[in-house]
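Subject: Sanity check before I submit

Could someone independently write out the C-alpha cells for this chain? I want to compare against mine line by line before I put it in a report. The sequence has 425 residues.
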Amino acid sequence: MEPTATAEYGLEDWLRWQESLNPKLVDLGLDRCARVAARMGLEALPMPVVSVAGTNGKGSCVAYLSSILECAGYPVAAYTSPYLHRYNESLRVCGREVRDDELIAAFNNVEQARDSIALTFFEFRTLAALDIIRRSQASVALLEVGLGGRLDAVNLVDADVAVVTSVDLDHMDWLGTDRDSVGREKAGIFRPGRPAVCGDPSPPASLCEHARSLGAGLHTLGHDYTWHGDDAGWSWQGPGAVYGDLPVPAMGGAFQNDNAATALMALQLLGPSLRVDAATAAEGIANAFLPGRQQIIAGEIECLIDVAPNAEAARGLAATLRARPPAGRTQAVYAVLADKDKTAIAGALAGLVDEWHTATLPGPRGQSGEGLARSLRRQFPDHPVTAHADIAEAWRVAMSGARRGDRVVAFGSFLTAREVLSVEN
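---
Independent answer below. Compare away.
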C-alpha cells in the first residue's frame, strides 16, 4: 500500500516521502506526469521558457543565463538539479531560493492532483516547481533537464528556446550506448518552428536531423556562433551581434567559455522583450557561479572540488589539472555511482594522480569504496589506493597526509562534492 503524506509534514518529510512513491528511481515516460500536469493546468507557462539539456554543462549554462538576465533587471525563475546542499537550491525565483512553505504548498497541490498516479520523486518535484513558477512574477523560466530530454518531466513544457550543451555517453542504460542515440534523446526538447542551440561543436547527426525535421532553426557552436580569446578575456560573435571584452568565467574549466557562449546564443534567440547589452552580459558572466564545478580552495594545500560524474567531465577536470601542475604531489578522493563507467572516469586522470582514496556513496546507486578501490588497483597498480568508510573520512585522511605545495582533488559525483564542501565549510 502506498504511503500517505500528512498535514504535519515538513520539507524533509516530504522529500523522504516522495522517494518512497515509486520503486523505480528513474521511470522515463511523460504519460503519467502529463496527466497530473493537465489536472494542474501546467501544460504551458505564462512566460518565455528556455529548456537546457546536455551531458555536461547544463547547470553552468543555466547559471550564466540566470546571472545575465538578473543583471539586466529581469526577474528570473530557474529550476535546476541535482542540488548540492539544500533542496531549496533547486528553484530560485526572482532572485531568491524558494522557501520551505512555498515548496510544501506546491507539494500539496501535486499530491491532490495526482490521486493514485505513481510519480518518481523527480517528476513530483518538477511538477511542484512548475506550479511555483506559474504563480510567480518571473519574466522568463529556465528549466534544466534532469536526464536525457525527450522523456524527462521538464519536457512537459514547450520551450521557446531549447538548448543542448553537449552530447556524450552517460546514463547509457536509459539513453543508449552511442552518441547518435544520446543526441536523439536530448533533441527531444526541440519544438517545431522554434529555435534551438547546440553547444557541442560536433553534434551527432541524429540531433541535427531531428532539428531539420521539425523546422527548428539550429544554432551550433563553431558554425553559427563562435568565441575567441585567452586567459585575459574573450569575445563572442553570433548572428547580427558581437560582444567584446568579456571576462574569463569565474567557474573553472576551459569549457566554461563554451557554456557562456551558448548561453549568449540562447539570449539572442529569446527576442526583443529580453534584450541584454554587452556590458550587462559581461557583468553576468563575471558574477555567475556554481559550487562544486572545478571549485578551487586556495591555500598551502590546494583543494579542487569537481562534480565530474562522467568521462567527458573528467577529461575537462584533467585539462585543468595539467594546466596548473602543483609543486608537490596530487591525491584524489574518488567516489562514484555504481551505474557509471568508473574506469573511464578515473582513466581520464591517468598520470595526474599520485595517490587515490575511495569512499562508499550512500544510497541504492552508490558504488562501494572497497569495490572501487579494487578496480583502481587493477587500473593503477603502481599507485597507493586506500578505501574509506565515507567521503568525509577519505577527505580528512587525504588532507592530513598532504604537505605544503601538494594538491587534493575530490570528484566523481554530486554527492562527493557535497560531502567534501560540507567538511570544508
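---
OP: Matches mine. For the report I'm noting this point. The chain has 15 helices and 17 strands.
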